[in-house]
Specification:
The complex is a heterodimer. Chain A is α/β, with parallel strands linked by helices. In chain A, strands 3-2-4 form a three-stranded parallel sheet, with helices on one face. The longest helix of chain A is centred in the middle third of the chain and has 17 residues. Chain B folds into two domains: 225 residues, no CATH class; 116 residues, hypothetical protein PF0899 fold (2-Layer Sandwich), CATH 3.30.2320. Chain B has a four-stranded mixed sheet with strand order 5-4-6-13. In chain B, strands 7-12-8-11 form a four-stranded mixed sheet. The radius of gyration of chain B is 21 Å and the shape is globular. Classes of the chains: A alpha/beta, B alpha+beta. The interface between A and B is medium-sized, with 18 and 45 residues. β1 of chain A pairs antiparallel with β1 of chain B, so a sheet runs across the interface.
Chain lengths: 93, 354
């Protein structure tokens, strides 16, 4: 007996994704950090910002905080994104 | 049905040489919840789609965080697996459509460490048509429709959005409702408006309400017939949950079985009066956190007052349960108003051009 059945999972083509260009160096760059808005992110990203500036000579760190940790970042907050050289999206609890 | 139609599906088709082999394939692939499944053969899936009058590629909605377009075929496959019969499938489609509305915040509700489950409440003619029993053991398993529809939602989340434990589902604990959490309302045994009517759906229209819900907390008060005193027991449970879980206002559900319902109805209380009483009385002070070991987060805001409900419309009053016993249940929200309950007619088209 042979039973035919359908795959119940979501299949997404890997071609749906493209990587953003990688940076050679952080030096003099503008880096955005997007926090999910939970309190636990604050001190962690404070440290990260210091590290980026002091160890990697990042010129500017832009801090973005989502209004709801469970939804995508508000589009208005991304208006400035063209100016960024890199973006770090982080979570915290 | 002809095999020629199999290529209507986007999903890959596999073959196995026995029923046992199918079960093992699904279990070892993490496609199940651990219980056996009905093999989703192309023929059965086609019947489900026909019942809901939708083609396989019908767009049910888009989950914005994962950027996933959910199509009817995927839901039908998972509904078959869950044990649904074809006439259950329009309810699954309606529930998922509601869950994909922005205010429901599906990603958060299904991935949070907070561990909520999605409660589906069915109202209208569908309750009778689907053979739903909203009486004995209503928050447990009562009938095929509610058990299988609830499971279909969970399996769909697992397989379409990877909401599996340890993958997208990051629940610390979860609760038993995450296997299946679906109920009807006992509309035939009450003079009250149904939950769906309360939320704007006509009585002759079948509807679902989806609610990102914590585990039910049972209450008991068999020692009064006074509506306020009965509600004080519900309110006490709400307050306890606010202090022990989340203090923030959101949607809350209460389930009122016949024995308690009779006292309200005899006193002329409609659902609206219940909602008004709970809105007024279900609140805590931030300083009350000291009573449950949370003194550290009171800070200098001890006198701040927190209501369970922002509006009387935020209380979902559901008439259901077995005939005997002065019991009831409070069903808390997942973290306040992060996710809002959504009510939608079964068969409604959200984005159709009329």
């Amino acid at each position: 007996m042979s039973i035919k059945f359908l795959d119940p999972t979501y299949k997404r083509s890997i071609t749906d994704f493209t990587y953003a260009p990688r940076l050679e160096s952080f030096k003099d760059s503008v880096v955005a950090i997007i926090s999910n808005g939970k309190r636990g992110t604050i001190s962690f990203f404070d440290c990260l910002e210091t590290e980026l500036k002091e160890r990697h000579q990042v010129a500017e760190v832009v801090r973005i905080i989502k209004s709801n940790y469970s939804t995508p970042v508000d589009s208005l907050l991304l208006n400035d994104a063209e100016r960024w050289n890199a973006m770090i999206s982080g979570i915290g609890d | 049905m002809s095999e020629d139609n199999d290529n209507l599906f986007a999903a890959q088709i596999y073959e196995a040489d026995s029923y046992d082999a199918v079960q093992e394939r699904f279990y070892t692939s993490r496609w199940t919840d651990g219980l056996p499944i009905i093999p989703p053969t192309p023929d059965i899936v086609r019947k489900f789609l026909a019942e809901a009058l939708v083609p396989p590629d019908h767009l049910v909605g888009v989950e914005p965080v994962r950027e996933r377009a959910i199509i009817a075929e995927q839901l039908a496959i998972n509904a078959v697996m869950a044990g649904c019969v074809a006439r259950h499938f329009p309810v699954v489609v309606a529930a998922f459509t509601a869950m994909l509305q922005d205010k429901f915040v599906l990603h958060g509700a299904t991935s949070s460490t907070g561990g909520c489950a999605i409660l589906i409440v069915i109202n209208g003619p569908a309750v009778q048509f689907l053979g739903i029993d909203a009486t004995f053991n209503v928050l447990g398993s009562t009938d095929r429709a509610t058990t299988c529809i609830g499971r279909a939602i969970r399996l769909s989340l697992q397989n379409i959005l990877e909401v599996r434990p340890g993958e997208a589902d990051r629940s610390t604990l979860g609760h038993p409702g995450k296997i299946s959490f679906c109920m009807g309302e006992d509309e035939g045994d009450t003079s009250w408006l149904s939950l769906a009517q309360d939320r704007g759906i006509p009585s002759d229209t079948s509807a679902i309400t989806v609610f990102a819900a914590g585990s039910p907390r049972q209450i008991m008060n068999e020692w009064t017939t006074n509506p306020e005193e009965i509600l004080d027991t519900y309110v006490s449970e709400i307050k306890a949950s606010m202090l022990n879980y989340s203090i923030h206002a959101g949607d809350w559900a209460i389930v009122v079985p016949p024995q308690l319902r009779a006292h309200f109805e005899r006193a002329g209380w409609e659902k609206r009066q219940i909602r008004e009483y709970v809105k007024k009385n279900a609140w805590v002070m931030r300083k009350d956190w000291a009573s449950c070991g949370k003194t550290a987060v009171i800070a200098n805001q001890g006198e701040r007052k927190y209501f369970a409900l922002k509006s009387i419309d935020d209380l979902l009053v559901i008439a259901a349960g077995g005939p005997a016993g002065g019991f009831g249940a409070v069903i808390p929200p997942w973290f306040g108003k992060t996710s809002r309950a959504i009510t939608m007619a079964i068969g409604a088209c959200v984005d159709c051009e009329i």
